[in-house]
Amino acid sequence: MSKQKISGSDALILSLLEEGVTTIFGYPGGQIIPVFDRLYDYKDKLHHVLVRHEQGATHSAQGYARVSGKVGVALFTSGPAATNAITGLADAMMDSTPIVVITGQVPSHMLGTDAFQETDVMGITLPITKWAYQIRRPEEIAGAVARAFYIARTGRPGPVVLDLTKDAQVGLTEFEYKKCDYIRSYVPVPKIERQDIINAAELINTAKKPLMLVGQGVVLSNAEKEIIAVAEKAGIPMAVTLLGLSAIPSGHPLYKGMLGMHGNIGPNIKTNQCDVLIAVGMRFDDRVTGDLKSYATQAKIIHFDIDASEFNKNVKADVTVLGDAKQTLAALFDEIKENSYKEWVDSFAPCEQAESEKVIMPEISPKSGLLKMGEVVRKVSEASGNKAVLVTDVGQNQMFGARYFKFTQTRSVVTSGGLGTMGFGLPAAIGAKFAAPDRTVCLFCGDGGLQMTIQELGTILETGVGVKIILLNNNYLGMVRQWQQLFFHERYSETVMVNPDFVMLASAYGIKSRRVEMREDLDDAIAEMLSDDAPFLLDVCVEEAGLVFPMVPAGGCVSDIMLNPSEKY
Amino acid sequence: MDKKLYTVTAYSENQVGLLNQIATIFTRRRLNIESLSVSASAIEGVHKFTITTYSDEETVSKLVKQIEKKVDVLRSFYYLDDEIIYQEVALYKVPTKKLMEDNRIEEIVRSHSARILEVNNDFTVIEKSGHSDETQRLFEELSKIEVRQFVRSGRVAITKSTVEHVSIFLQQQEDRRLGMRD
Ligand SMILES: Cc1ncc(C[n+]2csc(CCOP(=O)(O)OP(=O)(O)O)c2C)c(N)n1
Ligand SMILES: [Mg+2]
């Protein structure tokens, strides 16, 4: 007896279910209607979140993936829907976020004819995805979906596109699902070279002033415990990249803060003073390193990564350790000696003290004047018991969020690092909340960025997803304004924003909201926002001329740090 | 930095879209592709890309790692000329009449180890395989007579190494697959 045949659309949905997908973010249209039609019968198993723009769905899928550790899924039609997904794909590629984006495509016999809503999805997406594949026959669907999920989540994760022609959706096929765990041309987890571990351990064991840099790779390989164990055993201070935030609890005694342009003074200064720099799952982005010629030139560098193409790309390493961080760190643990570097670790204190005095205290507990972004972030963080998920948009809000939020558990940061995508925040926060319905999700965004994907308020209206939106409203494209003030002679070209009434806007979407102008109202407003699990928009009017400091100017030396416009550390 | 001619090879699984992806990696690094050839390899189902480019070792080593990172690429390598045996094919279309008038034809063909592929009243097609400078020299010589069309293929190359890295890679992968099964 031959097997019963089902449509390609059914095969797609069953395949997603086989991969354990429970939530997808999408938007229907002509070339994907057959799939949406079948979705109608799977409502109880597959929760479809109807977004308001495909860019929103891709960012939601990213937010979902980052918080849950699972693959985020988005489903769109062809043509303009596929092109709307591009920003999210590029963002996910830069930030190694596992998502699978499925786009409808014109029937295969019409491919290449400039058919209505045809676009060259493969040509456009191949350079900005980990993998992309066009499915033209229904019997290919199960295999392609299995491959897509395997590729997206393994190795260095990333976005995958499946472009599904309409005839493949409606054609009939037998269905049998087999999860993919092997591709001949692909080595997701390279085998550890024993010698690499020994070389790394040798450098670490003889170090006098070691410093460990923790990137998102640690989170992606679930190696938080392992890295902390290594740091504690060898007594090594740790610093994180923007995407490595929350991998180490903010209160850990060896945790010394964030690296980079607006990172903490200690980690940046000590990068150029340490004798062994141990970088794990990070890629020496220029926002972390500044000028490469003056970056850690005194130090021996050990680079742990799962992606061989990151080695020596920006910074030459003395020892490279290829492999999954969870495994390589566990192997390293056995080879390193117990140690402590009291003097070295204590030497961070003056940096911390200077930063606290000159930058942090004035920012989080100002005596007078207009509200500041930093104090808002810190208050929200504390009011949530430092347990919330931090989502940010891009700009000053992002840097203040990263600097002043505190973390007690991993996978608590969703932010656009490599691409710096304004408009990322709101939809990503929606995805994050769907991934962690029991956690508080706090989005900090700017008045500029919020308006880039503000249509997603509609998604909140429809789903009631309890995102807490804290709008750090300075009526400026603040980060650009900051550069104009510091480096372009205070010529504020096109950075003043004429904004709508965001409270009215939120109420039009049925979202509770409140505006805060005075410092004395802030605590109460935050308490009101966090009093339940409903969506909320807090429009905080902050000073227009706020500046994020400390700052390593772009292309500058990482230890050449500005404390304010006229003072260097 | 010192620029040299490098031969980059890549072995891949599935050709669809791959040429594009590999080309983009060159474009992003502002590297010109001097010549390109794609063909089957000795391994069933595996395609081989052979690309030449002027670059320095640091750039080309990064380039190769990025090519290798593509999911459908098995392995990628780079070589200098002394590490490989390489060849190109050139074809020359010359008017038969003028060729006959110049009675050096036999000498030219012999001294360049060229071959005549086709002769008719109108034109003659000469073929020569060799390195670029050699096919170029024949072009210059024939140009004194007249060359109506000239074309040179991309470089094809085979390593002098006694180790077959792609076969080793495939064996390792196969071992991994079998290891996962039990
Ligand atoms: C899509 C996109 N366009 C432009 C930029 C450049 N950019 C970076 S930060 C910024 C200003 C952001 O302003 P706002 O959202 O109000 O945040 P603020 O800096 O004021 O907190 C701009 C325009 C970007 N990162 N992304
Ligand atoms: Mg702003």
Question: What key phrases describe this protein's structure?
Answer:
heterodimer; A: 569 residues; alpha/beta; Rossmann fold; 3 domains; six-stranded parallel sheet; globular; B: 182 residues; alpha+beta; Alpha-Beta Plaits; 2 domains; five-stranded antiparallel sheet; four-stranded antiparallel sheet; 6 helices; 9 strands; elongated; binds thiamine diphosphate; binds magnesium ion
Number of strands of chain A: 22
Fraction in beta strands of chain B: 35-45%
Largest sheet of chain A: 6 strands, parallel
In the predicted model, the low-confidence regions of chain A spanning at least 5 consecutive residues are none
- List the ions, cofactors and other small molecules found in this model: thiamine diphosphate, magnesium ion
Give the CATH architecture of the largest domain in chain A: 3-Layer(aba) Sandwich
Count the helices of chain B. How many? Answer: 6
Largest interface, and how many residues on either side?
A: A-B, 22 and 22 residues
N-end to C-end Cα span of chain A: 79 Å
Protein structure class of chain A:
alpha/beta
CATH domain fold name of the largest domain in chain B: Alpha-Beta Plaits
Rg calc of chain B: 20 Å
Sheet with most strands of chain B: 5 strands, antiparallel
Characterization of this structure:
Chain A has 569 residues and is α/β, with parallel strands linked by helices. Chain A folds into three domains: 6-173, Thiamin diphosphate (ThDP)-binding fold, Pyr/PP domains (Rossmann fold), CATH 3.40.50.970; 194-346, Rossmann fold; 370-542, Rossmann fold (3-Layer(aba) Sandwich). Chain A has a six-stranded parallel sheet with strand order 3-2-4-5-7-6, sandwiched between helices. Chain A is globular, with a radius of gyration of 24 Å. The termini of chain A are far apart. Chain B has 182 residues and is α+β, with helices and mostly antiparallel strands. Chain B has two domains: 4-79, Alpha-Beta Plaits, CATH 3.30.70.260; 85-152, Alpha-Beta Plaits (2-Layer Sandwich). Chain B is 36% helix and 35% strand. Chain B has helices at residues 18-28, 57-69, 96-101, 105-111, 132-143, 165-181, and strands spanning 4-12, 35-40, 47-55, 73-79, 84-95, 115-119, 123-130, 149-152, 156-159. In chain B, the strands form two sheets. In chain B, strands 5, 6, 7, 8 and 9 form a five-stranded antiparallel sheet that branches. Chain B is elongated, with a radius of gyration of 20 Å. Chain B starts with a strand and ends with a helix. The chains are: A alpha/beta (569), B alpha+beta (182). The A-B interface holds A 122-123, 126-127, 130-132, 134, 151, 181-187, 307-309, 311-313 and B 12-13, 16-17, 20-21, 24, 61-62, 65-66, 68-69, 71-74, 170, 173, 176-177, 180. Bound molecules: thiamine diphosphate (TPP) and magnesium ion. Thiamine diphosphate is lined by residues 393-397, 420-423, 446-449, 472, 474, 476-480 of chain A.
